Amino acid sequence: MDPSKARYTKDHEWIDGESGTIGITDHAQAELGDIVFVELPEQGRAIKAGEVLGTIESVKAVSELYAPASGTVAEVNAALTDKPEAINKDPYGTGWICRLELSSPAELEALMDAEAYASLVEQGS
């Protein structure tokens, strides 16, 4: 996944608009520290934008993962069950969390592009 083409939330999730793949940003994984557990969403679950998809636990904290868009969970990255540290190593690749079948792709327009997200991070949000 090319991070420059993703859309971003203020909560540091990313979504690839073409595949519906969701993950957390490199900034988020760095802030969390070593990730030790990921609670994945249930495959087939319908979710609305902004709802909690699951949780990510690190040595520092437990954080909720929010859906950047509405849809149905089409696939989860089951490899994270045994290797949650993949999020730290490759948050835009092997560390993806789930894929949504988007119910309203137009919702992606409300999310930040890579440039706007970079500005958010620079401002310390």
Task: Describe the model.
This protein is an alpha+beta fold. 19% of the residues lie in helices and 31% in strands. It contains 4 helices and 9 strands. The strands form 2 sheets. Strands 1-2-3-9-8-5 form a 6-stranded antiparallel beta sheet. A 3-stranded antiparallel beta sheet has the order 4-6-7. Strand 2 (13-15) and strand 3 (21-24) form a beta hairpin. The longest helix has 9 residues, at 114-122.
Question: Which key terms come to mind for this protein?
Answer:
alpha+beta, 6-stranded antiparallel β-sheet, single chain, 19% helix, 3-stranded antiparallel β-sheet
Short description:
Strand 6 and strand 7 (62-66) form a beta hairpin.
